[in-house]
Amino acid sequence: MERDDRPDGSRLSDSQYRRFSSCRYDWELGVAPDGLILYCSPSSERITGRTADEFMENADLIAQIVHPEDREAFVAWHASVLQSREMGPEYEYRIIRRDGAVRWISRCGMPVMSEEGEFLGRHVSSRDITDRKGVEGKLRETRDYLENLIRYANAPIIVWDPQFRIVRFNGAFERITGRMAEEVVGEPIDLLFPDAEREDGLEHIREASAGERWESIEIPIQHVDGSVRTVLWNSASISAPNGSVEATIAQGQDITERKAVEEDRARLLRQVQEERERLFSVLSMFPAYLVLLNPHHEAVFANQRFSELFGEGQPGQKCYDLIFGRDEPCESCLSFDCLKTGKAMIWEWNDPNGRIFEVYDCPFVDTDGQRLVLEVGFEITERKQAAEELRRHRDALEELVAERNAELAASERKYRGIIENAHSAIIHWLQDGTVAFVNEATERLLGYEPGELLNRDVRVLVAPDVRPGPDDTDLISAVAADPQRFDAYENEVVTKQGERLFMAWSNRAILDDQGNLTGVMSVGIDRTRQRRAEEELQRHQQRARLLATELALTEQRERQAIATWLHDDIAQVLALVRMRLGFLRVTSDAEEQRRAIEEIDSLLAGAIQSTRDVNLELSPPILFEQGLPEAVSWAASRAREHYGFEASTAVEGAARTLDRDTEMIIFQAVKELLNNAGKYADAEHVTVNLCYEEGSVRVTIEDDGRGFDPDAGHSGGGGFGLLNIRERTEYLGGRLVIESRLGEGSKLTLHIPEPRRELG
Question: How many beta carbons lie within 10 A of that of residue 101, not counting itself?
Answer without folding.
Answer: 10
